[in-house]
């Protein structure tokens, strides 16, 4: 009997035979008490009564898959004689149960940059039906195409594995639906949430937004020389960046209130005559373990200012000449030098 059989269904049973005659062969039937079945008699064309099994209430194979009933035939003799037969009712399965996941939401946390093919989690759904009706297969639900390029689901085991690179900086959380389908076409659904945690896989990036070069050597202390943007795509300590300057450059770093912009300003007066240019390296290090670093090389040229007066090679020249020296004769050559550049360093005499 299929479990979808409606109450009231009737099932004819075999009639008993009694070799006696008369009242000794007149049979009545009895069925042991069972709430799911009752016994009814149907009179056939020959006047004999046919016992029939009547279904009293709906069946559920998943609760009870078989019944054993005892049918007793009693004759009309005195004393009465009886015979019994065992009636076994097997309840056959109908696909009346959908697959049910063990959880409505599966959550997993994993680090980025996992090797492709890594096992992320395993989902499980059960189906109370039997045979193919209880065989469950797993599939993606209605998910964006990008999910299928990053993850795979094994239709038999329910294992979800990585199929592409997971990058925290691109997406830190993935949410998608899974479907469990039995052999009869019924489905169950669940949600999968994958949280990607950050690894220190990005070095700080330094971008030079502006650079004032050359810088006049008479520029005052505090003059802005360069504006830089420092960025680390990681999060937490992995994205916290500290900067330092290497080299002998007379510059210092001023950090903006947000921390992502760095301003290089003059820390002391420049002197082109001591150094015509300054080369320095800005090094940015994050707080990861191990730390990652990024560098930027900056060259600042010093522009000359007329801050030096000409200087004679001697403070005093003494020349002795005879009184009859011809007019136009060279008496002495004086020399003055100016360490400035260009016109600022070109000396004229008067």
Automatic annotation (TrEMBL):
Taxonomic lineage from the root: Eukaryota, Metazoa, Chordata, Craniata, Vertebrata
Protein name per UniProt: PCDGD protein
Subcellular location: Cell membrane
Domain of life per record: Eukaryota
Ranges of residues in domain Cadherin: 16-101, 102-206, 207-312, 313-350
An individual GO BP term: homophilic cell adhesion via plasma membrane adhesion molecules
GO molecular function: calcium ion binding
Gene Ontology cellular component annotations, sorted alphabetically: plasma membrane
Membrane topology: Single-pass type I membrane protein
GN (gene name): Pcdhgb1
Organism: Sclerurus mexicanus
Keywords of the record: Calcium, Cell adhesion, Cell membrane, Glycoprotein, Membrane, Repeat, Signal, Transmembrane, Transmembrane helix
Keyword Transmembrane carried by entry: yes
